[in-house]
Amino acid sequence: KATARAGAGASLGGFGAFIELAPILKNYAEPCLIASTDGVGTKVKIAAEAGQYAGIGIDLVAMCANDILVHGADPLFFLDYYATSKLQIDAAAAVIESIAAGCIEAGCALVGGETAEMPGVYADKDFDLAGFVVGIVDKSKALTGKDVAEGDVLIGIPSSGIHANGFSLVRRVIQDLGLSFTDSAPYAPGKSLADVLLTPTRIYRKVMQTALQAGGVTGAVHITGGGLIENLPRMFGDNLAARINPASWPDLPVFQWLKTAGRIPDYEMRRTFNCGLGLVLIVRPDAADNVISALNAAGEASYKIGALVARADKADYVQFEG
């Protein structure tokens, strides 16, 4: 019930969730629905092994909501799918509570979901999470990449850590080192590996609202699976490339440790992880300083990480200086 919003209640029962359109559509000239679906991947294995579920639902909402927030959309409602071997009430309650917390942060209503017991598919404490979000945006205001141009500035917004991508590689590194998730994190004294690795994915609703209000944003990119290398080109054409200075933002300790302990090359790091940036804004050159000032005033860190340049024939779409 705490997640209810105009047009979307949050009551249980029935076979489907009803959404009232009238109170929603009145605020839009050219209303366009936008949807996204995702899961949390093998990060759920760490949550299950550590018995820590307080943030995993936030990850689920974030992975879906951020994908539509970067198009300038307002998330409306969310549904989840929770599957496990045998329902453990305390664990399930913690997961659903964290999903609700994520929905509140994203500004969308949790209107329903499905819980499935499948002992023939999952074993012991295994579980999996998936979900989807539906949002709305004015067609004329949607960020689609059509307005992105050469010279636009790239502004990076920090991640909270690994977020929810690359955990198969993370788990392999930990296994190869002979560590367990209850061991102390080598890069975070006083915390276990599980404590740090299960830090929830940031939800960038406030960042997007602030940047859009400041003006001059031509695109935005959620840095998920594929990292900087594969995600940035999704918001610009074949004639452009992103030129980035990797020294322009702080390198989080978790990534420093993974790179060294796992002997992971720079290219693989940048293709697998967010490397400290969960969101990248594409902004007109004349508006970049104003957007950064607005974000700073809102308490959000941001960094000029590079710009869009003309792409030479067969050149990389993402180019790193140094």
Q: Specify the structural class.
A: alpha+beta
Strand order of the largest sheet: 6-8-5-9-7-10
Mean of pLDDT: 95
Number of helices: 11
Number of strands: 10
Taking the sheet with the most strands, its summary is: 6 strands, mixed
Strand content: 15-25%
Helical percent range?
25-40%
What labels describe this entry?
322 residues; alpha+beta; four-stranded mixed beta sheet
Describe the protein's architecture and organization:
With 322 residues, the chain is α+β, with helices and mostly antiparallel strands. The protein is 31% helix and 24% strand. The chain is built from 11 helices and 10 strands. The strands form 2 sheets. The chain has a 6-stranded mixed β-sheet with strand order 6-8-5-9-7-10. Strands 1-4-2-3 form a 4-stranded mixed β-sheet, covered by helices on one side. α4 links the parallel β2 (74-84) and β3 (109-117). α3 (56-69) runs parallel beside α4 (89-106) and α7 packs across α11 (288-297). The chain is globular and about 55 Å long. The termini are far apart. The relative contact order is 0.17. The mean pLDDT is 95.
Brief characterization of the structure:
The chain has helices at 22-25, 43-50, 56-69, 89-106, 167-176, 193-197, 205-214, 227-231, 253-261, 266-272, 288-297; strands spanning 31-39, 74-84, 109-117, 127-138, 153-158, 217-222, 240-244, 277-283, 303-310, 318-320. With 322 residues, the chain is an alpha+beta fold. The strands form 2 sheets. Strands 6-8-5-9-7-10 form a 6-stranded mixed β-sheet.
